[in-house]
Specification:
With 438 residues, this protein is an all-alpha fold. Helix content is 66%, strand content 0%. Helix 1 runs parallel beside helix 6 and helix 14 runs antiparallel to helix 15.
Amino acid sequence: MNTLPKENLNFTGQVLVLLLPISLVTGPFFSDLFIILLGLLFIYNFFSKNIEFKNYNYLFFFLFFYLIIITISITSEYKLNSLSSSLFYFRFIFFSYALAFFLYYYNNLHEKLILSISILLIFLSLDAFFQYIFGYNFIGMKNQYPWTAEYGDGEYHRISGMFGEELKLGSYLFKIFSLLTALFFLTKKYIKKYLTIYLITFILVFSTILITGERTALMHILIFLTLCLITFNFDKKIKLLIFFIFISIFSLFLYQDKNLQKRYTTILDTIYSIDNDLFPSNYNRNVKPNEKVLFTSHHTAHYKSAWKMFRNNYMTGIGPKNFRKLCSNKIYFVESGCSTHPHSVYMQLLAETGLLGFILILSFFTYHSILIFKEFYYRFISSCKNQIQNYNSYMVILITIFINLFPLSPSGSFFNNWNSIMFFLPIGFLIFLKQNNE
């Protein structure tokens, strides 16, 4: 009699996993509810001894990180504000193990996920193209950031689709597509059944990321494709096909859409700090002569403010989520430097968690970077062959984690609920893959 409720609960868990990518589009309420429920299901199965995980290193690591940010929040100036993001941070840790549990113990779940994610990504891409062409999407949401003469430098030429005023469609598509890629290689049947679905999804997703105007998302998918094509262990003809599709789409869109071309030309802002004389004096109207800039002048102002906070609180920082509270304080104030967060994972960690939180997350990034370079070494230098099961999926997830924490790109708030779910999703996949390998 006890097996019936367990099976009903775990069926519910599988449904939640399948619906999670959709919930991330609808807003924070359902996505947060789903990961809480999944975390509770993991705890239930753990204490019911339905789980036999071989590796709890990630659990211990992030619980240690959790204890640190809780301690920092309690000792910060704005305790309640800081605790609002740190107190229940453990839910993301349990969610990642819940995802690994359902993927490992329910063998057909990953194939269902392939179909559900593919349908979702195709729908979101077509919706975005509809908005790109007509100015509004399938449900009548208008483009909030159209091209205008006033912002002709490309700053506001954006497509957001179902995300409305939130400019994260491109980021969402990249991160969910990377998981789809990992799932694709798990099927063992990709050449026959899933290759067509995958290629169609890839074409639409990459094209949509281009038209969103999200430069960071474009940079991330370019890094992702480059590293994956180098490391993947599969037919070279398919690699060439993907590379040809990528070059064709990129060239076509930038050739036919001059406004979009201007938007991506502003990527030169990222290297503007090398030498202002390399560019026309009016290239960036927000950059003063001889001013050193990283990404944009606004990003630079955020970083300067965050750095001041770190220098004043170098060991424990000012507390998670407190950047917005203190950036207007005259001690930390920098013109144009106030925002909800510093738009950099590492600057935010330095400012809000000091060296304690910064070193932990940096070590996490470094460890997974070493794993990637180790595979590069095995593949191209050493005569030793790796024995990793699901090698391609494993590399996809490692590369995704590497990009999520890549230091040289702007980012959302590290402690934001939505961003945290997107961060812990690939970690759940990695725990699942390591369970298979150990």
